[in-house]
Amino acid sequence: MAPLVSVLLPTRNRLEFLEQAIETVRRQDDEDWEIVVSDNDSEQDIAGHVAGLGDGERIRYVRTASFVPVTENWNNALAHATGRYVVMLGDDDGLMPGYVARLRQLVERFGGPDVIYSGAYIYAYPGVMPDDPEGYLQPYGYADFLKRRTQPFVLDPARRRRLVERAMHFRARYGFNMQFSTVSMRLVEELAPRGPFFQSAFPDYYATNVAFLTAREVVAEPRPLVVIGVTPKSYGFFHAHAQEEAGKAFLGSVTDDRARQRLEGAMLPGSNINAGWLSALESIWARYPDLAPAEPDHRRFRLLQATHAYEGCYLDGTVAPAQLAALEELLRPWERRVGRGLAGIARAAGKNARRPLPGLLRRTISSGLHWAFTRQHVAWDPPKIRGRYRTLLDVYESEAAGLRSTSV
Do the beta carbons of residue 222 and residue 232 sit within 8 Å? Predict the structure, then answer.
């Protein structure tokens, strides 16, 4: 009989974190699971570690013949899954205690929904985030439909469609990270005629929005069921440190051929997050023009990229004046006018572009200006637990101990 859930763990040269991700699955009270480790041409002995666990029937190892983009490795892991549901984790992420048991309860209670979208934690390892050097644990369920909710519920299809429509206009009102969603294999198979389940340079941005568009039923579970890790070897690290090129290299992503022409017409240099987001939206539009609630908003994308460049030049110090000048040559007249207006605001906030503000103050001003001007993401900053956890397994065991104490 097929296991209840396949935990997909694509990996590359991060064995020290993969070991812990695997352990968060092995320590589940409900053992109705399998793990698929898809090794993207690692130099480390990932195969030896998996073999040493002595559970070849439930923890399976597959390897790509050469280095492939992240999207392709995700699809490789999915192709080897046999579970009734799948959940995609990064190799520095993990399940929370009781995940499998809770999944079983929700599947039975709601009659086998296509998607279970849950809350999460984000765990930044010590030394990763510039403003939190001791690391932190923080609730990460910022979807507006989860706020002030405590019990699982069915998410209205019309509301799901509105959320995707906002995403097509570069407004995130729920998290697109794949870790939030446990997806039925039934839905994966139904979508197969339109191409692989994971597509575009940002496969989670693509797949999560497609699932919200096409699923018969999405159950929202406010409880955090997963923990999303941010390590010195994660995309989150490169994003937090404004290392755009390193982030691109980490993903190794490629553009969907069916979306390439439209992308080339709209693309501007700037934030890799925005560029990957656009790539996902164009793939959605190419594959689901009959279902997508709107075309990708090229006008807003270009405005966001210009905003990123002016903020980076005048506040963050992450964009050189020569880079900004090169970008301005690509802007349309109205975009240049808006950008220069923003530059004036940035100069006033920064007082003097030649004398950068202290790092934390500069980032705070930049973040506040960006949110006020673009409203791209939900304002969300719940309290952080700082300095308590050294590793992901510390987070897991602390939660497990809390559950044991409440059950006594």
Answer: no
* Residue 346 pLDDT: 63
In contact, 123 and 395? CB cutoff 8 Å: yes
Question: Could you tell me whether strands 136-139 and 153-154 are parallel, antiparallel, or unpaired per DSSP bridges?
Answer: unpaired
| Distance in angstroms (rounded) separating the CA atoms of residues 301 and 201 | 16
pLDDT band per the 50, 70, 90 thresholds, residue 219: very high
Q: How far apart are CA 143 and CA 135, in angstroms?
A: 23
b/e code 217-248 from CB counts within 10 Å (16+ = b): ebbbbbbbbbbbbbbebbbbbbbbebbbeebb
The domains of the chain are located at 5-237, 242-374
Mean pLDDT, rounded, of the chain: 87
Contact 122, 140 (CB under 8 A): yes
At 16, the pLDDT band (50, 70, 90 cuts) reads: very high
How far from the centroid of its chain's Cα atoms is residue 247's Cα?
13
Rounded-to-integer distance, Cα 66 and Cα 12, Å = 11
Rounded to the nearest angstrom, the gap between the alpha carbon of residue 269 and the centroid of all alpha carbons in its chain is 21
CATH fold of 5-237: Spore Coat Polysaccharide Biosynthesis Protein SpsA; Chain A (3.90.550)
Tokens representing 333? Answer: 């007249």
pLDDT of residue 308: 83
- Distance in angstroms (rounded) separating the CA atoms of residues 278 and 168: 8
